[in-house]
User: Fold this.
Amino acid sequence: MRSTFHGLNIANSGLFMAQKQIDLSSHNVANANTVGYSRQRFVTSAIDPLGYLMRFAPLQRGAIGGGVEPLSLDQIRDIFLDRQYRTEFSKSSYWATRASALYYIEDVFNSVDAASLDGVMSDFFNALQELSKNSTDEAIRTNVIAQAKKMIDCFRMYYDQLTDLMEQQDSNLYEETKHVNNLLTRLASLNDDIMKFEVGGNTANDLRDERNLILDELSSFMDISYAEVSFEPPLFNIFGRELATFKLYVGSDVNNEDNLLCDGKYAQLLVMEEEEGLNEIADNNEPPIITHQIYLASGIALLPENIEGYETGILKSYQDMRDGAEMDNQGIPYFINQLNIMVNALVTEFNSIHSQGYTMPYSGAVSSSDSVSGIDFFDPDGVTANTIAISEDVLLSAFNIAASSEYVTMEPDGHLQTGNNENALALIRGIKERSDLDDVGSFEGYFKNFLGNLASEVSLAYNMRDAQEVLIVSIGNQRSSIMTVSLDEEMTDLIRFQHAYNAAARCITVMDEALDKLINGTGRVGL
Assistant:
């Protein structure tokens, strides 16, 4: 025979379960607009029949269960979609950051006014053309120098803007690394709070939501992997459930403990300055720009790619733009290298032709009859975009521009035997019209190919960014459809739980009336 009050216990469990479910629906509704909140549901189970003897009782005797009990309070979210979202979000952030930097570089070079490289080089060659028509005119010679200075200023402007952007990428890398450390600090603190909360037998769903938000943000900065793993030795909460610790890794290799970012505590990222940076520019003779390098606290360098799988995210994009100097990794140093190749070819070829010609005698020369060859127009040491300069000889006098292919003499009466314009024409043919120059082919074609390659990189970055954003939106919508609170569903559940509550309360009323009859109405025969 069952306990006299067993029916009350059954109804009481249903009453309190319905009450908890109503409270949970209220919590879901209250957080319907909370960013990162995952809707929650109770997982319930029927309570087994009471008493150890019931396990031996025949089934036909009708052993009734003990009501309902909550097994767990679960978040409704898809772990697979979470991982997929973070993987793709890391890639999307990489391409979005890269596209922004490349767009700026393209904007630097895409000027079509007179200050563009195309414009100033055209003006320079036009000035040489005028010199070939009248090689004795000092004003025309001075204009050649002036146009050369404009071209030099253009090269240096490009260099300055690119190096400014490179330093900005480095500064961003430094600042964002500090932000990542702040996120890791919060993550470690949350792990501690979750552990303390769940060791008592509760489920820290709201804290886990906050942790998931941090993981979403961290995935934008770098490629991460994570897992909840059992303690060694196992640790159990008060209900006997095994607890797990949360481990976060940089990169995809979760078997390498050197890559561990967070395990209860966190291994912060260390930012150090290095004078011998990753962004050395080919053929330059200047001190390298000081760059920042990032390490794990364990001493393992995160950048460059010595951690397998570390290939995406904002930090990697900043590093690639700051340090990429190869064709398969086109960062700012790569584009500066391309400029340097062009400048080196221009200086070398122009000087080789110019030095074969002869200057004109002038009053400031060593002798009034001096006409010399072997003069460089450009400083032969200035073979990069930021060091190109006019030689001291040409700056000393415009008459040191070697326009003639033969010796120029001064007659006793002071008149010049003007020589010829062959060397000026050779400069035009050798620089503007040739298409077989070392490293560049032709200057016009080289610069067009340079711009075309840059445009191709920009287009690739934007296409990849857009494709990733479409994928992110698709995955995000799937994820939201599962985890986001549906007010319609919650309203339906509220009605359902209200009816369950009312029904349980009615069961208690019926049991109370039956017990009242049993207690107060029996044993009073004849009254």
Notes: Residues 138-198 form the longest helix (61 residues). DSSP finds eleven helices and twelve strands in the chain. Residues 276-283 have pLDDT under 50 and may be disordered.
